[in-house]
Amino acid sequence: MPETKMLYNPGHTACGGCGQAIAARLVIEAAGEKTIVVNNTGCLEVFTTKYPETAWGVPFIHSLFENAGAVASGVESALKFLGKKEGTNVIAQAGDGGTADIGLQALSGMWERGHDILSVCYDNEAYMNTGIQRSGLTPFDTNTTTSPSGKQSFGNPKMKKPVPEIARAHGIPYVATASVAFTRDLHNKVKKAVSIKGPKYLQIHVPCPLGWRHEGAATVTVARAAVETGLYPIFEYVNGELAAVQKIKPKPVEEYLKLQGRFKHILKLPEQIKKIQDIADYNIKKYGLKLEA
Amino acid sequence: MKKFVEGSYAVAEAVKLCRPGVISAYPITPQTHIVEGLAQFVADGELKAEFVNVESEHSAASAVLGAVATGVRAFTSSSSQGLLLMAEVIFNIAGMRLPLVLACANRAVSAPINIWNDQQDVMTIRDSGWILLFAENIQEVIDLHIQAYRISEDHSIMLPVMVNLDGYILTHGLEVADMPTQEQVDKFLPAYKPLYKLDVNDPMTLGSLAMPEHYMETRIAIQKTHETALELIPKVSSDFKKAFGRECGGLVEAYKIEDAKQVIVAMGSVVGTIKETVDDLRSQGKKVGVLKLITYRPFPKQAILDALKNIPEIAVVDKSISLGSNGPLYTDLTSAFIGQTKVPKISGFVLGLGGRDITKDSIKQVFDKLSGKQVDCEFIDVKKELLEEEYAGN
Questions:
Q1: Would you say residue A102 lies in a domain?
Q2: Is A38 part of the contact surface with chain B (CB cutoff 8 Å)?
Q3: How far apart are CA A31 and CA A189, in angstroms?
Q4: Would the CB atoms of B53 and A69 count as touching at under 8 Å?
Q5: Are A161 and A134 in contact (CB under 8 A)?
Q6: What gap in Å lies between CA B298 and CA B228, rounded to an integer?
Q7: Which of A225, B16, B280, B330 has a C-alpha 20 to 30 A away from that of B78?
Q8: Residue B207 — left, alpha, or beta (φ > 0 → left; ψ -120 to 50 → alpha)?
Q9: pTM
Q10: Last-in-domain residue among B211, B244, B277
Q11: Chain B residue closest to A46 (CA)?
Q12: What is the ipTM of this complex?
């Protein structure tokens, strides 16, 4: 047995190479043992809390699919009432569907009320727990089971919902993105977020080998390519101002798309590739991602 | 201390005396005065609590769920559409065995939208595992809230309790009622002692995934706890009498049924109207009475059978309906008699939907019709001309 207390234990039932499983461990280890985790329904809750076992070495509560923001608000309010909020972190976490779609209202309420809570979105870009259905954070042209490619379809017709921007519009003090491929950055962002009073939002890109159709061993490679192409910009807003971005030498988007089965249907369609390159170029310009020589 | 008080403010004051640490609610008519009253107590520093103004009833129920899971007594209140929006969380709170008290200002359910009283809202969560209590008047509104926390937080129960009070009739009506003192309530209601909670010094996982090999027993455990509640609720009522000097609570209350030939079974404020009608009819020599259900879940089957064992004719008054079937209380009551050697005549009547007034004349009609042919689901005070309009062209 290790000397240090395990906050997130092995033996859970996630798929091999699950990006979310890796990120969840990094998040809780950075936040530390004085943390209460509130988790929406989703893969993470299912693979870590199958009764009578639990992977969690910190207090953990799961209620429903969409209410982590509200449950966490109640937890934080109760801690305040008990005079125990100082020194205790509260994390409300969910997948992309639980954050961007069904859970957005409760999160918006939580952000607006100013609760001292870190919300974490593990963004694997579709409803993976139910079998790879499209969410508001599914990228353009992705082949999912509810946005399938077909004779008249290139897959998901919509762009990713700008949840970090939506969070920022609430005037909250900390909004950031991270990737499971850049673990030190992720660790530092969690540490920084929990040190700031008020609502925080952290959106982490976490590949899903099953849903994205790549080998489990390729998770970090795929995640890194998303960042290096500009398709998943890594940035940090502090008090509404862009404080830091991860600079890149932009690679063409094919370098990312070709690693995964979910974009296979467009790899030979230059027009579609161009549209996705435009998204990357927009991100690169908007956040100033390009590393100047 | 006796005071002339509106039902909603009576709830607010009774809840204040119970010292909840977290209150969360979302506005809906006719519940609003309850939470406005509590918000004012917090604003004036008369109640030390966190008041969380949420963006929906779903989040109100979720926030109090989180608070109780953290080991703090909590309160919320809703009505009608609000309760329906909460429904998912309502089931979840019971399943997670979290003690909580919710005041439901009973109101009709849309469509058509209607803010007035009936009891359809609570019937939508009837099967959730919550203990469901019904108040007849404002004194009971006060007393049942105080008892509700005792019942809910008892370590043999650990289930949420809903106190139902008829919208407008009780929420906005004024009566003289005795408001207990803080000392009395503190003595009767100890501080909440959680059996399990979110605590960084003793980490625990709440809300696990239960596979088919475990789920069913969790439901049976709630069913068994409801049996325990059937014993505890009368005990709490009797402790209440010792502490406060008045009768309130328990499972059922019989009014003039010892020698009765006809008895109405009902819940909530309509019982007051029925009692007055019973008095009128008795002065005319009619042997009638009323059996009030205070506790609807757990369903007090034995207490009902004991009370009604010698009654030849029973009418059930429902203020809600399971459309396509009958009034829910009627269904419960008739099923209670299955297997009994002596089965009375039982007729079902539906009254007062969407705020249609229930008068003494309405109740007299029920007694009259009870003498006639047995019926499962007869509506009282129906406007026949409107029904014809509804079906015109068919």
A1: yes
A2: yes
A3: 10
A4: no
A5: no
A6: 9
A7: B330
A8: left
A9: 0.97
A10: B244
A11: B209
A12: 0.96
